[in-house]
Specification:
Layout (H helix, E strand, L loop, with lengths): L1 H10 L3 E6 L4 E4 L1 H7 L3 H7 L10 H14 L3 E8 L5 E12 L5 E10 L1 H21 L4 H15 L3 E8 L6 E5 L5 H7 L10 H8 L3 E3 L13 H7 L4 E8 L5 E9 L7 H47 L3 E6 L5 E3 L1 H7 L9 H7 L2 H17 L3 E8 L5 E11 L7 E8 L1 H31 L1 E7 L4 E4 L1 H7 L9 H5 L7 H12 L4 E8 L5 E10 L8 E8 L1 H27 L2 H27 L5 H29 L7 E3 L1 H18 L3 E5 L7 E3 L1 H18 L9 E8 L4 E7 L10 H4 L14 H11 L3 E6 L6 E8 L10
Parallel strand pairs: 22-24
Antiparallel strand pairs: 1-2, 1-5, 3-4, 4-5, 6-7, 6-10, 8-9, 9-10, 11-12, 11-15, 13-14, 14-15, 16-17, 16-20, 18-19, 19-20, 21-23, 24-25, 25-27, 26-27
Length: 803
């Protein structure tokens, strides 16, 4: 039956797997093996985390262990490596199955590929953000720059560029290219569009996508300077697509560059198409805004002239004889109704021109006024002969000195603009309300609040998130005294410095801690700048973000790194057992010998007191020597928080070489040192720096383990440079390094040793970087072997953050 199930699992499209009751995988279906490229035996040998992205391993392990312990189903997402090294996101679901006694006898799980869905969601989110920038009227260069940065996030390893083409399509103008080399962008800005120069020009001319994966060997660019530019700036491929507007016009070019010579995947093809369209939307919106601004300017100018004319005649006027139906209109009234001045207006003509929805109301109001002989005032719409709609405000009053009949004198004012403005205002208010809703939601999701602060008046206008950070009830009166009472005492001097700067209008940025009334501590990051439009006093606007979760995660990460560093240090020292025993046993043997000699001298007749005294002095010397060795070992084995002190790097090297001397002799390693006396001290943690030195020394010895055709020589040297950095170099005569594999050596859990853990160099690099320095390795330019080195600043303390 089990074999049948496994055959069934092999034909399923998903990645199916099974485990025993202990949660250890013992079966994967054919689709799983094809996707990962590894067999069941390889999986059992390398462990079930072998194909999981390193950033996902720990939290996936936590979820899985909890599910196995609790006997509950598990559901989560993670990134799984494909056989070609590409990671894709999967949804994982696992269910326990039970035996006849109800005990869990194993687990079945299925991994479903959701990479396309995740990518689509990410793209939609980016599009939403960018369209919001467009809607808010953010400047086009800022939008295009942000668009490029978002594309580079969605397509790692990409460099994005956007170029404008002028209306005549004769030259390019630079739109955005935030991460392309500046000189390369400078060449493209103002470049004449020539299809024989490069793919961007050809994409403009052909109105199609142009993909170039090997510029120097592509026959289309023979004789062009463009392939040389690509080589000069380290670019391997270019994918160009025209940005086409809504009217079919080419607005510019959207291009993606890669450092390698590769073509786009299907997902990247879709990415290019989508963001080329989005670029076009942004460009056309910017063009429309510019036209609108120009139209608004022109309208304001016309309004100034119209205002002068309205002082002479704001409205059209008319007379209406209700008995004969005769009407007399002014020229302005004809203009309003858009009728020829030669036309003879009639009541039928007027009623026919009134908008059907307003006609009955207007006719009824007029008849009532005539019947009751009273004035009338109403607003209504008319439809002009060409189909336009206008709003008119008409006022009519009876005049008695013109005729024996009932005659009305009236005026009609064209109020179309004001009515349309009201509609626009209502739409704008609705849009503003929607935008405010989106902003509030965005602030809540990102734990970021906005504020204004009038320093002199001590007035604070906060959004909801900031009230939550300080633990205040929303809407409560906020003062600086009330805020200061919540600031962590250690951070108060920094806040006071901020207040002194703000008093003279300086912008500010600060990370500080808040002690809320409920006992909870929050970490906050605030940025603010002065509002220039209020020149008479310092008033600031800014944002405050709750970074408590980030700080807690950083503290957890630092603790984990410290634990891992201690494990690596103890592991490295365990390799020096024989050397350490030799360092301790030598002085102890000397103590025993000197003690016996002293006894014999004292037992002589007469006693040899001078000889005994010298023997005792040698005993004390050997005791001090043994004590120093034990002291150094205790320091290296101790688990304690990092502490900075001024240390002599050369002395630290000598101590490590002394501890490892026997081990190096056993391995037939010749150690040569070049430690100049003028090398200054550095501000560092002695134990951590000696851990790095010990790791480099042992790695150098390991690298020469298989060397038999020349001397196993290790050269250790130090130097100080003019830039204030101290460097240490450990050179071996071993097998050397391959340039393409150097960075892999510094990755966690990557090892070239059969019994190695693969954490030594990774931890060493993190230690050196925490001291503000760097650690690197290169093959020796002369002779065999490699050199690993680090440099740290003399006076820059290690970077630390609040726990």
């Amino acid at each position: 039956m089990e074999a049948d199930f496994r055959k069934l699992f092999d034909i399923l499209p998903g990645l199916v797997w099974a485990t025993g009751a202990d949660g250890v995988i013992n079966f994967v279906n054919r689709r799983w093996r094809e996707y990962t490229g590894i067999t069941v035996n390889e999986l059992l040998e390398r462990g079930w985390t072998a194909t999981i992205h390193t950033s996902d391993i720990e939290w996936v392990r936590g979820i899985w262990c909890a599910a196995v312990t609790e006997g509950s189903p598990a559901e989560f997402e993670m990134r799984l490596r494909r056989h070609d090294g590409v990671y894709r996101r999967f949804s994982v679901k696992a269910e326990p199955f039970h035996d006849n006694d109800g005990r869990i006898s194993g687990w079945y799980g299925v991994n479903t590929d959701i990479e396309r869905q995740s990518r689509a969601e990410a793209q939609l989110e980016v599009e939403k953000q960018l369209l919001e920038l467009v809607t808010r009227g953010v400047a086009l260069p800022e939008i295009l720059n942000q668009l490029c940065l978002e594309v580079e996030k969605l397509s790692p390893g990409s460099l994005c560029s956007i170029l404008f083409s002028d209306p005549d399509e004769l030259r390019f103008r630079m739109g955005a290219g935030p991460n392309l080399p500046g000189p390369y962008n400078a060449v493209l800005d103002g470049l004449r569009i020539d299809p024989y120069f490069g793919p961007c020009s050809l994409a403009i001319k052909t109105r199609s996508k142009i993909i170039v994966t090997d510029p120097t060997n592509d026959a289309r660019w023979l004789g062009s300077a463009w392939p040389g530019m690509m080589v000069e700036f380290g670019l391997g491929s270019c994918w160009s697509a025209p940005i086409v507007g809504s009217r079919g016009q080419v607005l510019g070019i959207f291009a993606i560059y890669k450092l390698e010579g590769v073509g786009p995947t299907d997902e990247e093809q879709e990415l290019i198409d989508r963001f080329a369209r989005l670029s076009g939307i942004a460009m056309e919106r910017a063009e429309s805004d510019a036209m609108l601004a120009a139209s608004t300017l022109e309208l304001r100018r016309a309004n100034r002239f119209l205002a002068g004319a309205q002082r002479l005649s704001k409205t059209g006027s008319f007379l209406l004889d209700t008995t004969t139906g005769e009407q007399v209109w002014s020229d302005e009234n004809y203009r309003i109704w858009e009728l020829e001045p030669t036309a003879s207006p009639t009541m039928e003509m007027v009623l026919a021109a009134i908008h059907p929805d307003d006609r009955d109301r207007a006719h009824s109001a007029f008849e009532n006024a005539v019947r009751e002989r009273k004035d009338v005032e109403l607003v209504y719409r008319i439809v002009t002969p060409v189909g336009g709609v206008k709003y008119l405000h008409t006022v009519m009053g009876i005049v008695s000195d013109i005729s024996e009949h009932i005659v009305y004198l009236g005026s009609s004012q064209d109020v179309t603009e004001s009515k349309l403005a009201e509609e626009v205002q209502r739409a704008s208010e609705a849009e503003l309300a929607r935008t405010n809703t989106y902003l509030t939601a965005a602030q809540r999701l990102s734990q970021t609040g906005s504020f204004t602060w009038d320093l002199e008046r001590d007035e604070h206008n906060w959004s909801e998130v900031i009230y939550q950070v300080f633990g205040f009830d929303p809407g409560v009166k906020v003062t600086m005294d009330k805020i200061a009472r919540t600031i962590h005492p250690e951070d108060m001097p920094h806040v006071e410095t901020l207040l002194r700067g703000a008093a003279i209008g300086e912008k500010f940025e600060l990370m500080f801690r808040v002690l809320r009334a409920d006992g909870d501590m929050r970490h906050a990051h605030v940025i603010g700048h002065r509002i220039d439009q209020i020149p008479d006093r310092p008033v600031f606007m800014g944002a405050l973000q709750d970074i408590t979760q980030r700080k807690r995660q950083e503290a957890d990460l630092n603790r984990a790194r410290a634990e891992l560093a201690h494990v690596a240090r103890v592991t490295a020292l365990s390799a020096l057992t024989a050397s350490i025993a030799h360092e301790v046993s030598q002085p102890l043997a000397g103590i025993m010998t000197n003690a016996n000699t002293c006894l014999r001298m004292l037992a002589a007749d007469p006693p040899n007191l001078d000889g005994a005294r010298m023997t005792v002095q040698r005993t004390l010397r050997d005791g001090d020597r043994a004590s120093e060795v034990i002291k150094r070992l205790r320091g290296l084995f101790t688990r304690k928080p990092p502490s900075l002190e001024h240390i002599d790097l050369n002395e630290a090297v000598r101590e490590v070489l002394a501890l490892s001397s026997s081990e190096l002799q056993r391995r037939r390693v010749i150690v040569r040192t070049e430690l100049p006396g003028e090398v200054p001290s550095v501000l560092a943690d002695r134990v951590q720096i000696q851990q790095v030195i010990l790791n480099l020394v042992l790695n150098a010895a390991d690298a020469m383990a298989a060397v038999n055709d020349h001397a196993r020589e290790m050269h250790v040297s130090s130097q100080a440079d003019d830039g204030g950095e101290i460097s240490l170099f450990v050179r071996d005569a071993g097998v050397g390094l391959q340039a393409k594999n150097v960075e892999q050596l510094f990755q966690a859990f990557h090892t070239t040793k059969a019994d190695g853990m693969g954490i030594g160099l990774s931890i060493s690099r993190s230690i050196i970087e925490a001291h503000g320095g760097r650690l690197w390795g290169v093959s020796n330019s002369e002779g065999p072997g490699a050199t690993f080195a680090f440099s740290i600043p003399r006076d820059v303390p290690a970077r630390r953050s609040h726990a």
